[in-house]
């Protein structure tokens, strides 16, 4: 489920970046996707260590 959200956010970012929608705010979507990805990786490593 989280991978789906990350993928959708990145797709929205690419579309917004290509079409120059909402100016600089479109980069917030990329930041949110990156944060979710990092949280997923860290959480996955903790689960594997147990």
TrEMBL record:
<dbReference type="InterPro" id="IPR043727">
    <property type="entry name" value="Lmo0937-like"/>
</dbReference>
<keyword id="KW-0472">Membrane</keyword>
<protein>
    <submittedName>
        <fullName>Lmo0937 family membrane protein</fullName>
    </submittedName>
</protein>
<dbReference type="Pfam" id="PF18919">
    <property type="entry name" value="DUF5670"/>
</dbReference>
<keyword id="KW-1133">Transmembrane helix</keyword>
<keyword id="KW-0812">Transmembrane</keyword>
<feature type="transmembrane region" description="Helical">
    <location>
        <begin position="6"/>
        <end position="39"/>
    </location>
</feature>
């Amino acid at each position: 489920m989280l991978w789906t959200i990350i993928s959708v956010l990145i797709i929205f970012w690419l579309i917004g970046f290509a079409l120059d929608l909402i100016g600089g705010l479109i980069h917030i979507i990329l930041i949110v996707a990156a944060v979710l990805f990092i949280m997923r990786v860290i959480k996955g490593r903790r689960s594997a260590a147990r």
